[in-house]
From TrEMBL:
Protein name: HTH cro/C1-type domain-containing protein
Coiled-coil region list: none
Gene3D superfamilies in UniProt: lambda repressor-like DNA-binding domains (1.10.260.40)
A GO term for molecular function: DNA binding
Positions of transmembrane segments: none
Amino acid sequence: TTTDEKGDPILRWIGVKIKNASKIWVNVDNKLKGTLYVEANHETAIWGRNCWGRDDDGSDVWYELYIAPMLMEFDHEALKSIRKREKLTQQQVADSIGAAVRTYQKWESGHTTPDCQYLLRLMNVLDIREPKEITKTTNF
């Protein structure tokens, strides 16, 4: 939390947007300080509104705080881009993760998606640190 010149806290997140939560509730004490609780499920999405966005046009105001796994899908275009960034061929990646090159080609073309075992191997071989680098949020 950032504070003003008097040491009082300045809110960083000035808004929250929540979709498909199982339950949302707030506990407020006698000093009117409260805590927001969200019971998330496999289709919950939560965004925070940041009052200090870096982009002048305000396009970065809403940040994903939590996106449930069921709302994400594999981004085959990102996979191809990352492989090229790492200067590897499809054959080299397939060999490194123990998959057939044809299987890998189907992932990159979007015809099929890797299971979680292969996804972890891909992340290791291609130096992918966050799942969001190779996933995208589905429309909901």
